[in-house]
Amino acid sequence: MKPNCTNVEWHGRAKCAVCEVRNFVLFSGLSSQELDSILQPIDNLHVPQHAVLYEAGTVAPSVYTLRSGLIKLKVDLPNGGQRIVRLLRPGDVTGMETLVGERYHHTAIALQNTDVCRIPRAVVMQLDQTNPGIHLALQQRWQRSVDQADHFIVALSTGPAEARMARLLITLGCTGDHPETLPSREDMGALLGITTETASRIMAEFKRRGLVHGDRGSDVVCDRSGLTQLAEG
């Protein structure tokens, strides 16, 4: 499915007023007329679970902002494995390497059914020429990406495996009142730099200790207090 945001027949048009694209920092300060013109070449895409949004090394003509769902950015390892370097949630932007003329650095895959808006490079570059605040906005987006990468390095790649798993569950937000859909055990292992078997064993241990509740397939609710104590310990 690839409806265009500006198509009046698009069933999701009512969501445009609260869409992440309209709140996207690059579009702040634009008049309604300017924004309508900018939105014309932007596509809203539905990305089914497990589908590839783009692949590492391919030409990067667009950036993407997530409206809903969850996307992983992965790199392939020489031994045939994979390492997930970042998780993208609603409001995040990916593919910004296009803005400096580079190819995509990672492969982006939907971990859940996901909605994204695809913003052509030309749209962003046009704003860069006409909006004096665009350069600062781009710097802020780059800094956010760096901060996310730093978080993954510090929180998910250091310390005992159980502590890293606890930090991952907290990061994924499964400590609220409603179940959260988690990545597969394979993806959790790739996020934490552990084997799938180790990820499965730790999750089974968390359930036994009452740190994970209401497990229905991949949907869980977690004990935040217990996870925080384990993560910090």
Short account of what is shown:
The protein is an alpha+beta fold. 37% of the residues lie in helices and 22% in strands.
Instruction: State the distance separating the first and last CA atoms.
Output: 46 Å
Per CATH, the class of the largest domain reads Mainly Beta
Uncertain segments:
none
Structural class: alpha+beta
Spatial strand arrangement across the major sheet: 1-8-3-6
Number of helices: 8
Structural description of this entry:
This protein is an alpha+beta fold and 233 residues long. The chain folds into two domains: 143 residues, Jelly Rolls, CATH 2.60.120.10; 75 residues, Winged helix-like DNA-binding domain superfamily/Winged helix DNA-binding domain (Arc Repressor Mutant, subunit A), CATH 1.10.10.10. It is built from eight helices and eleven strands. The strands form three sheets. The chain has a four-stranded antiparallel beta sheet. A four-stranded antiparallel beta sheet has the order 2-7-4-5. Strands 9-11-10 form a three-stranded antiparallel beta sheet. Strand 4 and strand 5 form a beta hairpin. Helix 5 packs across helix 8 and helix 6 packs across helix 7. The longest helix is centred in the middle third of the chain and has 23 residues. The model has no long low-confidence stretch (mean pLDDT 80).
